[in-house]
Amino acid sequence: MSRTLSVHEAGLAVADPAAYSDEERLHEALTLLRRESPVHRVEAPGYNPFWAITKHADIMEIERDNKLFLSGQRTLLSTAEMDELQAQQRELGMELRTLVHMDDPQHRVVRAIGADWFRPKAMRAMQTRIDELARQYVDRMAELGGECDFVQQIAVHYPLYVILSLLGLPESDFSRMLQLTQELFGGQDEEMRRGESAEEQMNTVFEFFNYFNALTAARRENPTDDLASAIANAVVDGGPLSDTDTASYYVIVATAGHDTTSATISGGLHALLENPDQLRRLKDDPSLLPTATDEMIRWVTPVKEFMRTASADTEVRGVPIAKGESVLLSYPSANRDEDVFEDPFRFDVGRDPNRHLAFGFGVHYCLGAALARMEIQALYRELLPRLSSIELAGTPRWTSTTFVGGLKHLPIRYTLT
Question: Where does the signal sequence lie (predicted)?
Answer without folding.
Answer: none
